[in-house]
Amino acid sequence: MDNLINWLHPNQHQPLQSNAVHVWFYPLNLTPPCLDQLIQLLDTEELARSERLIHLVHRQRFIAAHGFMRSVLSRYTQQTANDLLFAKAEYGKPRLVNNAELHFNLSHSQDMAMLAIASAPVGIDIEYMDRKCDWLAIMQRFYTAPEIHKIMSLPPALQQHAFFQVWTRKEAYMKVTGKGLYLSPNEFTVSVPPEAAALLDLDSGLNITQWQMYDIVLPAMAKEYCACLSVAGSASQVVTFMYTLST
Question: Residue 211 in contact with residue 98, Cβ under 8 Å?
Fold first, then answer.
């Protein structure tokens, strides 16, 4: 599949085809009036979760991301954003109570959020690549030997960004399986940039062709971020939208 670069306006929203994935992108650095608008969409459980976050910026990002998720999902259901009910699957992945055939996955990092929607299990991850962390230690603990070898073979200036790109690929797969962090990242191997996103090997012995991965080329405002999508089966079409509150 070609790189995804055409970010559509929400007014161009179209019905979800059975073998398509819709990906929505949303900046989370909102003004107080926008946050006030989105907080009205959250249920009591989401409000309680937001209140448990110590730092104000983290609380605001949570409200923005979950309000965004509810607003977009309401476009695909016959319910308003406030009326959507969520439950958790076996490993904690959220699902819609009254619309089991609609699959979705939310990811947010720093000031950006993404939501993937499909008629098959889907996982998405976005990561801020310029944050400070001991990425070498994290890589040694959670990456497989082939992944480590390929990353360390890259020019030094490219290694940290490659680490985060691999992380999005791993997270996207862990999320599409529904297991999330119950699946260890070193139980499977993914490709390393500049190779396109792909699942290469599974310790479980399962057929890797059951899932497909797609790199997502983000808009210019998110040049410090990387993202990856994973879907059960495959997607003949991935349609990307830039969410706005004004529509």
Answer: no
Burial of 245 (0-12, 13-18, 19+ CB in 10 A): middle
- 240: enclosing H helix or E strand: strand 237-242
> Are the C-beta atoms of 112 and 128 separated by less than 8 Å?
yes
For residue 179, the Cα-to-chain-centroid distance in whole angstroms is 14
Cis peptide before 94 (omega within 30 of 0): no
pLDDT by residue (tens digit) across 35-71? 999 999 999 999 999 999 999 999 999 999 999 999 9
Give the C-alpha separation, 208 to 188, whole Å: 10
Q: How far is CA 185 from the centre of its chain?
A: 16
Which residue do the tokens 């960004």 mark?
161
Nearest CA to 45 among 97, 86, 92, 90?
86
**H or E segment at 103?**
strand 103-109
Please check whether residue 108 is in contact with residue 114, taking contact to mean a CB–CB distance below 8 angstroms. yes
Query: pTM, whole model, 2 decimals?
Result: 0.94
**Burial class of residue 202 in the structure, from the number of CB atoms within 10 Å of its CB (0-12 exposed, 13-18 middle, 19+ buried):** middle
Please, are residues 193 and 183 in contact by the beta-carbon 8 Å criterion? no
Rounded to a whole number, what is the distance in angstroms from the first to the last CA of the chain? 29
Taking a C-beta distance cutoff of 8 angstroms, is the pair 200, 189 a contact?
Answer: yes
